[in-house]
Specification:
Immunoglobulin-like; single chain; Rossmann fold; 35 strands; 669 residues
Length: 669
């Protein structure tokens, strides 16, 4: 034990005063005369030994009062355990994680983690003198916060609110912390964001205090993603999309309410059982009424973490699909098939009369049974596929065409015409789990009657075999080439060669083949941390072409450039609020986007103090991890470690105790 002001110990000589008073007995007897003895109070018998004991106890109480009063002024303390660290800190940084995950409730208090963290931070500030320079840093202003006094820091902590920006561990733990001697970090330490490897890279000249906050539970339900069963969205036509819900907690959630809202009108409501730590997928049917894009969202009911209860997305009606058929016959079954659907815009060219300029505007080109392929067409098709187009090749009746080998070589596809047997073979029943057939079968029959077909075109090593013969040979396959796709059909479309033409599968398969060529110009939803977004635009001559993202009265001008007829822009870092944003050019809306939070923020699983300590090496004495505890425990542990244990308060309490003891002895004994 040591004393902060040892010179006050000279005042211990004052204990001689009560001793002297006790020895000379300053109190002297007085003669009191009464007119009648009846007024004399009856006295108790008191022996000399009892009187002496009382006087000795009073003397001891007075002496101890003076001793502890002097010690209180001398301020005794037990030295700090961290003797290698300076205890006089003039710079302190409070790094407080105010991300949305801090909405979760604390394990021991019916308060949010952010409220408890702010309360603990204010208690820690009480340790330091009022002259200490404090920097209060949060997720949105880290390393940009001004240095303030203790009272201003307390006021800043009282005004804290949740930030939509995630906890950035790189900024918190990097070495450049100004001149802060002590850095306090209050966080829930989410496993999805905090990087333990950063603990080995902290500045060895500063002291880091990690204060984990224990959540009551890690249960949370959020929408993982939403995607359309059919990328084609048609007005006044029933569509279907899939909702993927994730239960991040350890307990199953029965009957979780889910709602679908389109243009502020509730379209569907359902209840779903969600097993723990799993993604549950459900389907919802919808119908778009009217033209134009529709604002939609899926809403789940979940408490207490509510920031991710809404998932926004945009439903944009699709344009018509451009299908170009190159065939020798005007009576092609594809013409009759596609012309019956207003969704498709069809055109046909004969091999001898092709408008090559119009080919590039097609979504899909169908090479249907032509005997000889012109060299110019081969070159055009190669460029078309590499640039992202879709090509479907249906072989001719003759297997002696030499131009097909040149086309396959240009497309780098290991395929050739079959000169062997023309015997028809039945097709195998397709798998119901194949995404190509996901919405085709309303009632899947594993014993359905399948058509038979010859095998005029043979190949191997495709990207996906969609349909096969019973022997396992591919009948319809997809090849991914660059940004485009190539589909190969093994048999011509003549009924005597291919029974699929008259089978119930023909229409849905050929429709799906055409629809697969559709390129969605933009996603139905984006994350706030998307680095870049690309959409097609039409450049307006004579204008500045400055695009803006607008939500209500808030306007953002993102970094942007137009390349090859497409606008590429970065999501502004200040765009933090989810919802719908209009893309505007000169005041006119040219697009609409939906933004949502990153999924990592919704994963509430956190590192425990023991896990955090396990990431530290033995020589990292400057990083301290506190156990789950209340505000006073954190403050007390810090004082013991760095400032030592001050005892003057206990001395003052003992002074009061002995003073009251003296009063009690005089009055009651």
């Amino acid at each position: 034990m040591a004393f902060l002001y040892p010179s006050f110990l000279w005042a211990l000589a004052a204990i001689s005063i009560p001793i002297v008073l006790h020895l000379i007995q300053l109190r002297r007897a007085k003669r009191i005369e009464f007119s009648n003895v009846k007024f004399i109070q009856v006295s108790k018998d008191l022996t000399a030994s009892q009187r002496n004991l009382k006087e000795l106890l009073i003397l001891a109480a007075r002496i101890l009062f003076i001793i502890f009063l002097v010690l209180a002024f001398a301020q005794p303390f037990i030295s700090a355990s961290e003797t290698e660290r300076p205890t006089d800190s003039s710079q302190v940084t409070i790094a407080l994680d105010n991300s949305l995950s801090m909405q979760n409730l604390h394990a021991d208090e019916d308060l949010t983690l952010l409220t408890v963290a702010a309360d603990q931070a204010k208690r820690v500030l009480d340790i330091f003198p009022s002259t200490t320079a404090i920097s209060v840093n949060t997720n949105s202003n880290y390393n940009r916060a001004a240095t303030i006094g203790t009272s201003e820091a307390v006021s800043a902590l009282d005004q804290l609110s949740h930030s939509t920006r995630p906890f950035v561990s790189q900024q918190v733990m990097k070495a450049d912390q100004g001149y802060a001697e002590h850095v306090f970090l209050f966080s829930d330490f989410q496993k999805s964001y905090f990087e333990p490897s950063l603990l080995s890279k902290v500045d060895s000249n500063r002291v880091y205090h990690l204060v984990p906050l224990k959540a009551a539970d890690i249960a949370n339900v959020f929408v993982d993603s939403v995607y359309l069963a059919d990328e084609f969205v048609r007005p006044d036509t029933e569509g279907r999309f899939y909702v993927r819900l994730y239960n991040a907690g350890n307990k199953a959630i029965p009957d979780c309410p889910v709602r679908l809202v389109i243009d502020n009108v509730q379209i569907a409501a359902l209840s779903i059982d969600l097993p723990p730590k799993q993604i549950t997928e459900t389907t919802i049917n919808f119908t778009i009424r009217g033209e134009g894009s529709k604002q939609a969202w899926v809403e789940v009911e979940d408490y207490p973490v509510e920031f991710d209860n809404l998932y926004y997305f945009v439903l944009q009606p699709s344009g018509r699909l451009a299908i170009t058929e190159i065939s020798s016959s005007e009576a092609s079954p594809l013409q009759r098939l596609y012309q019956n659907e207003p969704l498709f815009q069809t055109q046909r060219f004969s091999p001898d009369n092709i408008d090559y300029a119009r080919l590039n505007s097609s979504d899909i080109i169908v090479l249907q049974g032509i005997e000889e392929i012109p060299a110019a067409l081969i070159s055009t098709l190669e460029t078309f596929v590499k640039s992202g187009g879709t090509l479907a090749i249906i072989p001719p009746l003759s297997e002696r065409s030499s131009t097909y080998a040149a086309l396959m070589q240009a497309l780098a596809i290991p395929a050739n015409l079959n000169t062997g047997s023309s015997t028809k073979t039945s097709l195998a029943i397709p798998s119901r789990d194949n995404p190509f057939f996901k919405t085709i079968f309303s009632d899947y029959d594993p014993k359905m009657q399948m058509p038979a077909a010859v095998r005029k075109l043979v190949w191997s090593r495709s990207s996906e075999d969609i349909l096969k013969y019973r022997g396992g040979a591919p009948y319809l396959s997809r090849f991914d080439r660059g940004q485009g796709k190539v589909y190969l059909l093994a048999a011509p479309l003549q009924p005597e060669q291919n029974e699929l033409v008259s089978h119930a599968l023909f229409v849905p398969v050929m429709y799906r083949l055409a629809i697969s060529s559709y390129k969605q110009e933009q996603q139905i939803a984006y994350r706030l941390q998307n680095s870049a977004i690309s959409i097609p635009v039409q450049k307006q001559a004579g204008s500045e072409n400055i695009y803006k993202l607008v939500k209500d009265s808030t306007v953002f001008i993102p970094e942007q450039q137009i390349r090859g007829g497409r606008l590429v822009f970065n999501v502004p870092p200040d765009l933090e609020e989810p919802g719908f944003y209009d893309l505007q050019l000169q005041g006119n809306t040219v697009g609409r986007f939906a933004f949502n939070f990153e999924k990592q923020e919704s994963l509430l699983e956190q590192y425990s103090p023991a896990e955090l300590r396990s990431f530290l090496s033995k020589d990292q004495q400057q990083v301290h991890v506190y156990d789950y505890s209340d505000t006073f425990s954190v403050k007390s542990e810090f004082e013991k470690r760095f400032f030592g244990v001050t005892l003057w308060k206990y001395c003052l309490i003992l002074c009061l105790i002995f003073l009251m003891a003296e009063i009690a002895l005089i009055r009651f004994l």
